[in-house]
Amino acid sequence: MSGVELSRKFTATVADYFEDMKRDYRLSVNSSILNHYQLLNEDERPRFAALQIFSKLKQETSCPRQGCVPLVFDTPFFFVRESISRTLCVAEEAFLLGLQLYYKEMDISEVSLVDPQLYRDQRPWLLENFRETQEEYIRETVEYFRNEWVPKVVGIIDELVSPTAQYPQRSMERLMNYMMRLSLTMREQLEMVILLSTSGYRKLWEQYLPSEEKVPEHQGIHRQPLFTIQLTVADNEFVFVPSLETVESTVLGIYDHAIQSIKGIEDLQSRLTTVTNLLVSNEIYTLPPDEIRLVASRKKIKEILEYNFQPARKLQEDYQEYNDLAHLNIETFAELYIAAKHSLEDYEQTITTYLEVCLMIV
After folding, report:
1. Which residues lie closer than 8 Å to 283 by C-beta, 6 or more apart?
2. For residue 66, what pLDDT is reported?
3. Which of 96, 98, 231, 241 could make an S-S bridge to 156, C-beta 3.0–4.6 Å?
């Protein structure tokens, strides 16, 4: 469009434009592939969501630039708007801008306490590494809520109200309504964090649900076993390391820990000194562990674990016929066997028998 001669004079600029075009092209192709893949494969959506990868096809919630049209004092509708503004906090431009800032920079409605590493890293995991990684991720996320998220929201109100200024009672009532709106929004979003986290954790385990249809081979790491346990001999017994009980308590313990960790986050009333001189220590209410949806997700995870424990328990039962070998004191047995002065054929037969057993166990 600029002509050959002009392009030759500004080769660096033209090269930059070409690089931008190539980058935009690659991004658009990758985005189209991702959108297409997500639409066709429902099994991949939880993994993408855990990795914080979302489709651009999802329409973002529109945010209005202004709550009400400015009106002059003598307009008949003025008194109606005054009545509305007493209860509708977004009728004030400053409050509306504060809410816009919140949803732009402090929205946590899509935050999950499930570590994306559980989907990204190669499996199987060591049980202890699984527990430490997930608990560390929960701790860091909740610390962000306590030490950064809440102070940022408090900062919105602190910017609206000067600590030294005197405000009319009606203005303070509006501000209190606005604070309650923010407080309810924060509570709602914390509940969404819990529901999204518990749902995502349940879907992590639903990958190992029984299926009547034959599952085709999949190259993704999420089709690999999540843990590896070994059947070994300890204290003359065939036991799993780690035990099945330890696996269950660890998996369900992480689920319970995620729910409990959200408790105790301070509400706005505990941090605001510019709105009221009364220091009220409150915490944001969150969903209790006995909430019906949380109980249902926990029950589902436990059922999936029990289903996957069945082959392991069957294997442990099959090895019970070798209990005599597990309790065998090899030194005492060898002394008694040598003292019996068996023939060479007996020696060969005994060695052959134990080699066959060894091969069967291994």
Report:
1. 263, 264, 265, 266, 267, 270
2. 44
3. 98
